[in-house]
Amino acid sequence: MSLLEVEGLDARYGDFQALFGVNLSVEESVTESIIGANGAGKSTLLKTIAGVLPPSAGDIRFDGKSLVGLPPNARLALGVSLVPEGRRIFPSLSVDENLIIGAHSGRKGPWTKERIYEAFPLLQPLAKRSGARLSGGEQQALAIGRALMSNPRLLLLDEVSLGLAPIVVKQVYAALPTIMEQGTTLLVVEQDVNQALAVATRFACLLEGRISLSGDAATANRDAVTDAYFGMSSVKKDH
Ligand code: ATP
Q1: pTM for the full model?
Q2: Is the pLDDT assigned to residue 206 strictly greater than 80?
Q3: How far is the CA of 38 from the centre of ligand 1 (A)?
């Protein structure tokens, strides 16, 4: 049995359907990347798994139990934690306080403030700084650290690299192996195909709300991934 099983998932915003019959299985301790263009439905998929958006059809099972109908904090208590797009840290609270809040309604486990500061050395000197005075990369590190404080079994990471300079992306991604070593399962949403394939064992491409391709990241055919991403079979190589 996979840790996460998504079956026949539909999601809607009013009349607009964003996901169509999405199927996805993620084994425990595996990192899977969800790749797709703007508007493909990647954030919507993570939001339905985290319980922020109710699906209009289908099932989401975590460790064999359906999550459908459970509010986000109940999912957090089971070990499902979302780092949302846009980070959403608390600007008036310090880095330390943001981390402490992350432990609320979570599980017991290996992650403590001290461990987070070890995993993200860039946060260490900023413990007392307010969230409002952090750079984009520092906010992203804090958002991941805050989610880890709930000791998730499944960590959902939405667009980690969005708006960050490549060097900062590298710093943030450098913490991922430490997170994986804890046996945490990661579902990572990325627009950067190279980054997405480098970090993951498995990948799935979303195209207009449907899974268009999935497979092993190590043996992924770049042309096939590009086609599955853009939805055309004649994408020019020099594009
Ligand atoms: P992005 O990288 O732009 O976030 P994405 O793949 O994560 O892309 P989603 O954010 O899941 O895409 O959006 C999927 C579709 O649903 C898009 O067409 C988007 O316009 C639409 N959508 C997303 N959020 C809402 C909302 N709150 N209300 C209405 N439509 C929405």
Answers
A1: 0.93
A2: yes
A3: 8
